[in-house]
Amino acid sequence: MGRAGITAKDATIKNLYHPSMKIEDQGKYLDFLRSLNAEQSGKSQADKDYEATLNSFELGWRMQNFAPEVLDLSRETKSTLDDYGIGNATTDNYGRLCLMARRLAEADVRYIQVNYGDNTNNPAWDQHSNLPKHADHAKAVDKPIAALLGDLKKRGLLEDTLVWFGGEFGRTNYCQGALTKDNYGRDHHPKCFTIWMAGGGVKPGVHGETDDFGYNINSLPVHVHDFHATIMHLMGIKHEEFTYKHLGRRYRLTDVSGNVINDLIS
Fold it and tell me: What is the pLDDT of residue 168?
């Protein structure tokens, strides 16, 4: 995952290895704990808590053992690296992140998030000023994204991998603050905005339409709860049953609403 100030090229997985124990010895240690637990396992809550703790340890150990190989881009061919723009100053960072995403998808990782940052102290797309900077952002992400989608399709992964690209809200179609020839910005605009999806059972094409100014929705609005319900449906999750407990109450990601948008599904 990339964010402002961190590059994929130099990023490492922190605290990946035990400071005083070899990884194979960690596996033996966890096996021993599991055998001890099996001898006295019961049905008390304490036993369940212990089992959950041990499962989390074992998950961490498997990740330690597995992650370095999955994220080793030196195993890729030069043509693949070129496709993702790795080695090009403009596309190198995001290209590495997208290629890591493909490798994680190949390794059956269920949920993968790739963030774009331009290595400054400000979020890349948060252009309250200097909107022309978006041209640089587009150049940085377009080639890696195209390579990722093409790579997933070529390897037979796109049909069961849902890719979506977007942010949390739109931008006004008019200037925020001072307007100059070379520096102007846009304010927050939650009334309408655009995302795109590919693969994972979604239809090609355009769904919905704004007015000529991109200010209000003219047709086929999709509420964020509808969007979440649709994504979960594509992942085989019933959004009405997807709850979590908080402050003594069970909540749904789609709250008390949300409808699957069948027109988006192929």
Answer: 82
- Residue 82 — φ and ψ, nearest 5°? -65, -40
Beta bridge partners, 176, equal 185
If phi > 0 it is left, if psi is from -120 to 50 it is alpha, else beta; for residue 184 that is beta
pLDDT digits (tens, 9 = 90+) for 181-228: 888 889 999 899 999 999 999 999 999 999 999 999 999 999 999 999
Q: Which amino acid is present at 67?
A: A
DSSP string, the chain: ---TT--TTT---TT-S-SSS-HHHHHHHHHHHHHHHHHH--SSHHHHHHHHHHHHHHHHHHHHHHHHHHT-GGGS-HHHHHHTTTTSTTTHHHHHHHHHHHHHHHTT-S--------SSSS-TT--SS-GGGHHHHHHHHHHHHHHHHHHHHHTT-GGG-EEEE--S-EEEEEEES---SS--EEEEE-S----EEEETTBPSS---EE-TTSSSEEE----HHHHHHHHHHHTT--GGG-EEEETTEEEETTTT-----GGGB-
Average pLDDT in the chain: 85
pLDDT above 90: percentage of residues in the chain: 53
More confident residue, 5 or 135: 135
Q: Which of 177, 147, 174, 176 is nearest to 76 (CA)?
A: 147
Pairwise pLDDT comparison (157 vs 52), residue with the higher score = 157
